[in-house]
Amino acid sequence: MVGLTLVVSMDFFDAVKNRRSIRSFKAQEVPADFLAKMLDAARLAPSALNEQPWEFVVIADQVKKKQIRVLYDAARSKFTLYKQDTSFLENATLILACTKSDATRDIISVALATENLLLAATALGLGSLVMTTPVSTEEQVSFFRRECNLPAGIIPLALIAVGYSTASSSQKESGMQGMRELSMTAVIE
To answer: In 10 A of CB 11, how many CB atoms?
Structure first.
């Protein structure tokens, strides 16, 4: 059945509850229609003044993904972050989230669009991870500007990895054990 894509979708609250940061992906391509659905979900996000100040660039090229991994490893080392196997960058489809300006309202708008994209990925049965370290140095930003042909004024904010998780559902659930539950209190005057 080449060319057919099984569409799995879930209730919104299930997607919110089940979304996890995944760092282990199968070497399996994300179907183009799934990418289109995720990007459409991002496009439908609210934005300040309805400016929609975002640009999303899909990176599927293996050579570029290997180069991104090298830059990511260098940045992690520079910032003395914990050791991490970053091979997941080569198995995932990468999406660069960018803004058209560094105004706070535009950065928040891109964050809202990114969350829509992450929830859409979860609803489609995909794992995802949003990272800011890959766009934290001038060298990295220059790389993305050059390799992704970003127009002047477009600012990379985050790199999103999307793909089929290698983790079992029980492993995904165990990742929540350390998270504290927040109680919600309604204030009525």
So the answer is: 10
- Looking at the 3D structure of the chain, how many domains does it have? 1
Rounded CA separation 16/20 (Å): 9
C-alpha closest to that of 100 among 88, 113, 89: 113
In this structure, what CATH number is given to the domain that contains residue 132?
3.40.109.10
Contact predicate 65/160, CB 8 Å: no
Both tokens of 5, joined, read 């894509």
Cβ-proximal residues to 36 (8 Å cutoff; 6+ apart), any chain: none
Establish if 35 belongs to a structural domain.
yes
89-130 pLDDT, tens digit per residue, is 999 999 999 999 999 999 999 999 999 999 999 999 999 999
Residues 163, 26: contact at Cβ < 8 Å?
Answer: yes
Range of the domain at 81: 22-166
Answer for the pair 158, 135: CB distance below 8 angstroms, yes or no.
yes
Q: Which pTM value belongs to this model?
A: 0.84
DSSP 134: G
